Amino acid sequence: MIEMKERLKFGVIPMHFEMLGVGIIKIPNGNLDDKLDIIFQKGIGLPLIHNIIELCRNEISTKDQGNSIIPVKNYTIFLHYFQNKGDIITVLFMEKKTNSLSYPQLYLLIKSIRNNFRLNLPIAELIDFCNDTIEIPHTEGIIGVFIIGACGTLYLSKINNNRTTIVERSVTISGFISALFSFSQEVIGKDTGAVLKEINFGNQRFFMIIKEKVIFAFLVEKVNSILQRYMYQIADDFLDRYRGIIKRFNGDVSQFYDFEKIIDQYFLI
Length: 269
What we know:
The chain has nine helices and twelve strands. The protein has 269 residues and is α+β, with helices and mostly antiparallel strands. The chain has two domains: 4-135, Beta-Lactamase, CATH 3.30.450; 142-266, 2-Layer Sandwich (Beta-Lactamase), CATH 3.30.450.70. It has a five-stranded antiparallel beta sheet with strand order 3-2-6-5-4, sandwiched between helices. Strands 9-8-12-11-10 form a five-stranded antiparallel beta sheet, sandwiched between helices.
């Protein structure tokens, strides 16, 4: 394995980048009809990744390499793609429209990513490099996150340790949320992916996303646009990682504990 210092020999310059999101995706054998291999994802949701690649399908499939800039609502997506041993590697960077992307810096970052594939270095090293190099904004205002199965099983909770009362009553709270889920199934309908937008408790609010019979509940003190975007992303990331486990769930919730690391990427709890 080539360590970071050694990688300097290949023109790879470790730097620090701040952006809203990044995704590295492999399209096996260049076949856009097959399932995408998400190598690295941080701050950018899976639905958006799929939509951008579908939007640029013709360009990606007909050129050996290239770049595109795609405006999406309040954001700008910078897309870079290249061929690698028959596969297509696509790299997405997301930034606010009001911010100007630094193309010389992006070029250095893209060069580092391409070198990883060119030198056939371990994917784990690429992931470590991206985690160390690329920082997305964390957001405050979250008191706790609860992820609950349709039958009321608390898959995972992440609560501010200073809120001892909430920590001690996390199971009771999850039961309350599950009861709300049963009610919302009647009101909203099954499997709609709808959002029970807000339950107000004075200075605190619950935001709930119900998707694929899993409840994602966020106890929030202060709301901002980044926090709202991250709520949806947490739901998408969890389902993408654990969909198979949920279908065959055997009661072992420890299978979900590793997802705390993903929550910590986005929320300061």
